[in-house]
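Q: How would the structure tokens look for this protein?
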Amino acid sequence: DSQIRLQKPKFVKVSDIKPAQHCYNVYARVISVESNTITRFNGDELEVATGQIGDESAVAEYRFIGDNAKKVTEGAVIAIRNGRSEVVDGFIRLELDKFGKISDESNFSIDSVNQEKNISKDEYIKKTRGGRN
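A: Here is the predicted structure in token form.
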């Protein structure tokens, strides 16, 4: 029996996302969007969207680039597949892995968003190896 069995992706809550975690899937409501275009060194322009997303458990800051930046609109419910949480200046920011994608999930309901808990406001200090500072 050499058939490949595809498994349904497991979705987590925003509050479950840990620093430097890769390959998570999460449903979230887009709270805010700020869109910009940046010019790379080679002259190419790149769309960048930053803002906040959340669910019943917590909210988090995000940064999406390229085509994915165009997929976030305020108030929409999205699914992030193959997400990556980067630690930038000591704080979590949600991004996408190389094979990550965003999809509109208007059929998925998020009734309320817990804005009291923001996982991007907790500071993370990088541990040093070897036990010496």
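DSSP finds no helices and five strands in the chain.

The radius of gyration is 16 Å.

Upvote if useful.
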